[in-house]
């Protein structure tokens, strides 16, 4: 029987777990270094004891930047088979985490299917499930109802839960006083705000935080401290509501660590490009290096249909400056539930951002694949180029659909015999360079 409760508890006792060994191998780092970082809370290994199919990953600013994919059914799109297709595509494309944000139907079988079959980390937002599970409208739910659903998700094997613990009754007055353009855009945050407004009671996730920590410690479920007051437009970025909530999340991080419970802190949101780095640095200070999990950030408000690009721009800058975990954004953001192709586009954009940031901050071996791609391109070795590509099938399909003529099939249809690589290879080999 294990002599520890959580990965953090093991690390603090000097115990190296199997999960730590796997993470160390993946990150090309000494396992003792991983153990120390987990003990300090700077690396999180989300690994619920009941997630039997998990292939563990480490989340921390000094490790490879990880990405999360949001999925789940809604009242308007309720086909769980399609959601499972999205899960399989996400794992195939290299997503390290799946969040089930289902808000309709019988959610538990799908959640259990994920934690028995999916190797990626599984996250949820229990407040969404509270209304569905208890079949009560929001105002009828009690604090105990909310906590019971947190326990249910822990029992189901969920690796991390987003809990909006940082807004309190004081936040109600702040939101009314400061007149934000977008008020609260966090779905979970708005539900907590609405519940407090209707019942007159304190945020149950804040008031009963110690009870939640007991559950998390029992199952080794990580808390992702949700940012209810994240900015939903550039005008609200880095305002009083956002920063005060972040300060409270820093306090809650300390309380969780005292229980040996691992913590991720969630962040913005819509943020102008020139404020992204500062947001990351402020979080690192206030939350003492706990891994930062950011949605985007989206660096402009005017690109519906292309928000996977606005998020990738912000995500690259965020990860380069300390964010550890990027939540993908799809072309459907602000518009609709993403379909399978939207999911793919969102993942690829987020993976590019994460990889670019890892190269910039010198993560171990991050650039190895880029160097291989450079060698493959110099040799005009197309198969080797596809092997290095983030999305080999798309790269191959584009080239095949516009194939060059047979007498210069080693090049592409953009340059043909004007290809710089071909000309340089021939010139350096003292060969005749035919153009016409």
Automatic annotation (TrEMBL):
Record-level GO cellular component terms: cytosol
Reaction(s) catalysed by this chain's protein: 5-amino-1-(5-phospho-beta-D-ribosyl)imidazole + S-adenosyl-L-methionine = 4-amino-2-methyl-5-(phosphooxymethyl)pyrimidine + CO + 5'-deoxyadenosine + formate + L-methionine + 3 H(+)
Cofactor: [4Fe-4S] cluster
Family per record: Belongs to the ThiC family.
Source organism superkingdom: Bacteria
Protein name: Phosphomethylpyrimidine synthase
Residues reported in the UniProt entry to bind [4Fe-4S] cluster: 412, 415, 419
Biological processes, Gene Ontology terms: thiamine biosynthetic process; thiamine diphosphate biosynthetic process
Signal peptide coordinates: none
Keyword terms of this UniProt record: 4Fe-4S, Iron, Iron-sulfur, Lyase, Metal-binding, S-adenosyl-L-methionine, Thiamine biosynthesis, Zinc
Organism expressing this protein natively: Veillonella montpellierensis DNF00314
Binding site for Zn(2+): 270, 334
GO function term, MF aspect, one: 4 iron, 4 sulfur cluster binding
EC number of this enzyme: 4.1.99.17
Pathways involved: Cofactor biosynthesis; thiamine diphosphate biosynthesis
Residue numbers binding substrate: 70, 99, 128, 164, 186-188, 227-230, 266, 293
HAMAP family given in the database record: ThiC
Purpose: Catalyzes the synthesis of the hydroxymethylpyrimidine phosphate (HMP-P) moiety of thiamine from aminoimidazole ribotide (AIR) in a radical S-adenosyl-L-methionine (SAM)-dependent reaction.
Cofactor note: Binds 1 [4Fe-4S] cluster per subunit. The cluster is coordinated with 3 cysteines and an exchangeable S-adenosyl-L-methionine.
Top enzyme class: lyase
